[in-house]
Amino acid sequence: MKENGGNEIGDGKKKILPQRLIAAFREQRVHNRSMDSMSEQARSQLMGRIRGKDTKPEFFVRKLLHAAGYRYWLHGRIPRRTLETLKRENPAALLRGGKLPGTPDIVFASRRKAVFINGCFWHLHDCPAGQHAPATNRQFWADKRNRTRERDQENAAALHALGWKTIVLWECELRDPKAVLAVLVDFLGPPSAVERATGSKGA
To answer: Are 172 and 179 in contact (CB under 8 A)?
Structure first.
């Protein structure tokens, strides 16, 4: 049997020493970590392309509500009459741009109810998607998402102070249309006869 510094065996194949195996394994682990994470610039660009409104989950919920006979306002907007009433009742309230605090995704003015449709990652839901943390720039994203959650709580409190009720629908909970609609009907009550007959906004 020929040996060459302990690196070859009788069939001519190289013998890999344990130390080399360990080194190769460590290099592979480093490589895998780098493949599993994005650069800060790439992640920033990816996050920047995510829409803040008119998202697919929002369209999904809107279609459910519309098909069930409900009519509504979007992005925190409310009728002028409702806005004037709120200002009279709450002179100190901040209604920037004539919109409700937190710009709820769907607004039912006559019911004084609002629906928020939240992305699990951005709003730090307790589901797996919400608890997933980016591998790069961890502290930045943790601070950003925690601040978003705090702002959500502040907006809900501001709406409650105005006499409004709110509900949050999470992206991960939108898989079953019947279940989602049941939750909304329970929150809103049935659509009015006027809504069904005329299809007017502001229900």
So the answer is: no
- Provide the percentage of residues in the chain whose pLDDT is more than 70: 70
pTM, 2 dp: 0.72
Neighbours of 184 (CB within 10 A): 20
Q: At a CB cut-off of 8 Å and minimum separation 6, what does 5 contact?
A: none
Strands 106-108 and 73-74, by their bridges, are: antiparallel
> Residue 170 corresponds to which tokens in the numbers above?
């999470």
Can you give the length of the chain in residues?
Answer: 203
Question: What CA–CA distance (Å, rounded) separates 16 from 85?
Answer: 81
Compute the Cα dihedral for 104, 75, 62, 203 and give only its sign: positive
127-144 burial, b at 16+ Cβ within 10 Å, e below that, comes to eeebeeebeeeeeebeee
pLDDT digits 0-9 by tens, 178-195: 999 999 999 999 998 767
Q: Say if residue 21's pLDDT is above 50.
A: no
- Start-to-end C-alpha separation, the chain: 90
Distance CA 64, CA 43 (A): 33
90: amino acid identity, one letter:
N
Q: How far is CA 1 from the centre of its chain?
A: 66
Rounded-to-integer distance, Cα 191 and Cα 203, Å: 8
